[in-house]
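INFO batch 0412 | record 1 of 1 | parsing
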Amino acid sequence: MISFMDFEKFLSDVNNSAKNNLHVKKNEIVVVYLLAMYYRAINLSEEILYFIRNNKPEFAAIMARALLEVYVDFMNLVKEPKFLLHLMDENKRSKNIIITNLNKLGFGNDGHDFNYWNERYKKINMIEKFKNIGMNNLYTIYRTFCSDTHNSIISLRNSHIDYSEENVVIKNKSSKKGSGSLVMNKSYQCLKQMSFVIHSILKTGLASNFRSPQSSKKSINIDVNG
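INFO prediction complete | emitting tokens
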């Protein structure tokens, strides 16, 4: 498990490495969105750090859930540029921009047209996203964070309800010391892998600073530049 001080230093290293090093051309549509998601992951990690520092791990878990959602979309897009269709909104102009740029990546060369892939990725659910990138175990962690976020019975009992033999007490329970360790550890692992991938794609020369057991040449050895 990563310590708070190590997580804080790691985020500082991530920001310093990103500063003045991450540049993308306008027509590299997939990389544009990968980089946008990367910066969102950094922002969410900074929020996680803030809540852990202020002994609010339950709010850190909410941010961690959002971070895992960004991470799984990021890794799916690295694996398959057509995944961009899943992120596409209904705005006609944005659709045209994305479809035009996907065509440059050989969209449709596999014998399937736009409608096929649009339906394929529009309907993909969260568990399929994790399976696509071989992260089934991480989905279990994601579900844990979701449980902490939602008004589930378990979440409410853990956070606000104490039962005794004779009565029930509703209160704001104090957070247990160290209860944010899982949040920090998973956030660290995800952002570290995203850092490795984005620095590898953009050839900044800094990717080795973020190499980990999860880092894989196979995951980034695709043409995402158009």
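INFO post-check: The chain is about 65% helix and 5% strand.
INFO record closed
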